């Protein structure tokens, strides 16, 4: 296992915290998901062999990176542009990119904007290219023009409250630890690094400019639409859409790896209000269909492959949203294959 080093790097946009193992080799940049930090990549970084140079970054408002506001009207571009600035300061002109969950959306946006700078792209349980919530169909058709059913108002307020209170226990279903052990991974999986992951979740900056973001009322079910600020709104389908990856040149190889039992990014996501309405967990459901998140990602990547790109989909049995934590050997094997492609 390699020794990890954490430092802060000043850029023209903000100061970002990174964790890295070594300073030589082909750069492999890891981008974490929502309500987490680069800590969720530490075991992956330590296990990545030579000749690779692993680097994990804390996104703005997470971990040790500056908590600058998030302009959600730009989709995930605030994060993607931060990443571009970081790599420029580090002197990295081309890198392998690995993005988990929301981080998958960040690296898709980076690929869309800087295709020649990407050696390979690995998507780990990524957010749909059509955002999170508020759409139906494989082509990401909006349920309502205002994006109703997505954005900052869709979060469980108890989860936000317990994050703000620094709750480290497991007494409540919405506590960070309970969400980690029941949703980030598939029960009964537990990790020796659980306390560190809870601390990483608790480092999330909260508020309208951060997590979860603001919201606006809607006349469409479920009565809430995206705002213009903060984390969840930058993944709203009215702000984030990267369904034209088949148009970019060059086309680096893409690995899409996910757990088969993921309850966060799924065609029946337990975090999609439309699916929750269909099963009676959210009142007043009007028949709005659930978002087919996997079908949407597959639709976009199939077009990428049809246009000449190389795509591999790996579904890992008996694993949830954090397949890199739950099945590190299978994840590592698949990752090394795309890195060497």
SSE blueprint:
Elements: E1 5-10, E2 15-20, E3 26-31, H1 42-47, E4 52-57, H2 77-89, E5 95-100, H3 102-113, E6 118-124, E7 135-136, E8 141-142, H4 157-164, H5 176-184, H6 194-202, E9 206-207, E10 211-212, E11 215-217, E12 224-226, E13 254-259, H7 273-278, H8 293-306, E14 311-316, H9 323-326, H10 328-339
Parallel strand pairs: 3-4, 3-5, 5-6, 6-13, 9-10, 13-14
Antiparallel strand pairs: 1-2, 2-4, 7-8, 11-12
Low-confidence stretches: none
Strand order of the largest sheet: 1-2-4-3-5-6-13-14
Mind telling me the C-alpha Rg?
Answer: 18 Å
Major sheet summary line = 8 strands, mixed
Measured by DSSP, the beta-strand proportion falls in 15-25%
Shape: globular
Average of the residue pLDDT scores = 97
Helix and strand pattern: EEEHEHEHEEEHHHEEEEEHHEHH
Name the assembly state.
Answer: single chain
The helix content is 25-40%
Count of strand segments: 14
Quickly count the helices: 10
Supply the helix-strand structural class: alpha/beta
Question: In whole angstroms, how far apart are the ends?
Answer: 24 Å
């Amino acid at each position: 296992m390699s020794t990890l080093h954490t430092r802060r790097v000043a850029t023209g946009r903000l100061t970002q915290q990174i964790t890295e193992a070594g300073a030589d080799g082909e750069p492999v940049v890891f981008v974490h998901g929502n309500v987490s930090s680069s800590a969720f990549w530490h075991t992956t970084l330590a296990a990545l062999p030579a000749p690779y140079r692993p680097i994990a970054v804390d996104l703005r408002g997470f971990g040790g990176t500056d908590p600058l506001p998030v302009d959600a009207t730009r989709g995930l571009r605030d994060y993607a542009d931060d990443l571009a600035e970081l790599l420029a300061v580090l002197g990295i002109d081309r890198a392998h990119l690995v993005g988990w969950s929301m981080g998958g959306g960040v690296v898709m946006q980076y690929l869309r904007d800087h295709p020649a700078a990407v050696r390979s792209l690995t998507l780990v349980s990524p957010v749909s290219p059509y955002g999170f919530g508020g759409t139906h169909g494989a082509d990401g058709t909006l349920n309502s023009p205002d994006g109703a059913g997505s954005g900052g108002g869709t979060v469980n307020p108890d989860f936000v409250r317990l994050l703000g209170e620094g709750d480290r226990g497991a007494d409540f279903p919405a506590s960070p630890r309970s969400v980690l052990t029941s949703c980030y991974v598939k029960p009964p999986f537990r990790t020796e690094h659980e306390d560190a992951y809870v601390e990483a979740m608790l480092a999330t900056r909260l508020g309208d400019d951060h997590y979860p973001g603001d919201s606006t009322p809607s006349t469409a079910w479920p009565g809430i639409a995206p705002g213009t600020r903060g984390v969840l709104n930058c993944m709203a389908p009215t702000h984030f859409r990267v369904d034209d990856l088949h148009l970019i040149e060059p086309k680096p190889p893409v690995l899409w790896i996910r757990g088969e039992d993921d309850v966060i990014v799924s065609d029946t996501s337990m975090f999609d209000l439309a699916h929750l309405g269909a099963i009676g967990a959210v009142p007043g459901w009007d028949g709005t269909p659930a978002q087919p998140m996997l079908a949407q990602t597959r639709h976009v990547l199939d077009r990428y492959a049809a246009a000449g790109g190389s795509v591999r989909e790996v579904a890992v049995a008996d694993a949830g949203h954090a397949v890199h934590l739950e099945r590190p050997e299978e994840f590592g094997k698949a990752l090394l294959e795309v890195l060497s492609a």
